[in-house]
Write a structure and sequence with these properties.
Layout lengths: L1 H19 L1
Amino acid sequence: EKYVLAKKIGIKLVNHRWLED
């Protein structure tokens, strides 16, 4: 479950950087 949670957080960070760029 930790892996799934980390994946969700990772996706959120990637999306956030995408929007900022």
